[in-house]
């Protein structure tokens, strides 16, 4: 019995490595992560929740990445946007079937899980008050899910593809217009891919009342928590 136990312990690192290099993700695990937002009862009208796949390091390619739900009765492609986000299919049948989310790459090369961000507007006009509320809503949710620590809302960030020519301006209530400066960086804090064109709107740097006007829809709006 002692020899069997030693053999099992010796195999644990290999099993962990095999799981890390696997090309599939357990649907039930993803479901449990995603359901937190669905059950969250506080205001969240400015927020959206996606299942997101993102590279662990810069050497891992995100282009061409495909995510598919496989169950006993279904094979469903889950399109990923430019930031690796997919609309998650909540399915009792897939849960009961112990379905798998498969990648066309090794899952161990990527981080995955629920990802909350601020909803974009098709008209490109965001009131300063709404953006402040959106940031506070996201912060409250992260506190609820024990991810925020002692941070507070400093602003929001609009992200575009690197070669996009979009412009982002702040229109004060009194009529003054301030162009937000573009820089290169990650769409979200902590991402290893930092090749997006981003515009940072810091609440303290501009008047409290006004609007942020974008010339086209951003890939994402992230909360700046500091």
Summary of the model, kept short:
Residues 1-18 form the signal peptide. It is built from four helices and 15 strands. It is an alpha+beta fold and 226 residues long.
Please give a structural write-up.
The structure is a single chain. The protein has 226 residues and is α+β, with helices and mostly antiparallel strands. It has helices at residues 2-20, 27-39, 92-96, 128-144; strands at residues 24-26, 47-55, 67-70, 75-78, 85-86, 100-103, 110-118, 125-127, 153-160, 168-172, 177-179, 182-185, 196-202, 210-214, 220-225. It has a 4-stranded antiparallel sheet. A 4-stranded antiparallel sheet has the order 8-14-10-11. Residues 1-21 have low confidence and may be disordered. This is DUF2987 domain-containing protein. Residues 1-18 form the signal peptide. Keywords: Signal.
Strands, helices and their partners?
Layout: H1 2-20, E1 24-26, H2 27-39, E2 47-55, E3 67-70, E4 75-78, E5 85-86, H3 92-96, E6 100-103, E7 110-118, E8 125-127, H4 128-144, E9 153-160, E10 168-172, E11 177-179, E12 182-185, E13 196-202, E14 210-214, E15 220-225
Antiparallel strand pairs: 1-6, 2-5, 2-7, 3-4, 3-6, 8-14, 9-13, 9-15, 10-11, 10-14, 12-13
């Amino acid at each position: 019995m002692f020899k069997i136990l030693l053999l099992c312990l010796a195999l644990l690192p290999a099993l962990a490595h095999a799981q890390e290099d696997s090309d599939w993700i357990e649907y039930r695990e993803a479901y449990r992560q995603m359901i937190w937002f669905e059950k969250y009862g506080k205001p969240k009208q400015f927020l959206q929740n996606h299942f997101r796949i993102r590279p662990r390091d810069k050497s891992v390619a995100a282009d061409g990445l495909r995510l598919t739900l496989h169950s006993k009765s279904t094979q469903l492609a889950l399109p990923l946007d430019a930031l690796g986000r997919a609309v998650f299919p909540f399915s009792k049948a897939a849960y009961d079937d112990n379905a798998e989310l498969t990648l066309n790459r090794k899952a161990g090369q990527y981080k995955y899980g629920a990802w909350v961000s601020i909803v974009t507007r098709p008209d490109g006009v965001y009131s300063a008050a709404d953006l402040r509320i959106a940031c506070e809503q996201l912060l409250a949710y992260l506190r609820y899910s024990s991810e925020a620590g002692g941070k507070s809302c400093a602003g929001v960030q609009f992200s575009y593809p690197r070669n996009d020519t979009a412009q982002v301006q702040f229109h004060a209530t009194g009529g003054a217009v301030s162009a937000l400066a573009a820089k290169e960086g990650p769409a979200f804090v902590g991402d290893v891919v930092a090749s997006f064109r981003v515009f940072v709107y810091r609440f303290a740097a501009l008047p409290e009342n006004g609007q942020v006007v974008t010339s086209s829809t951003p890939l994402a709006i992230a909360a700046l928590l500091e």
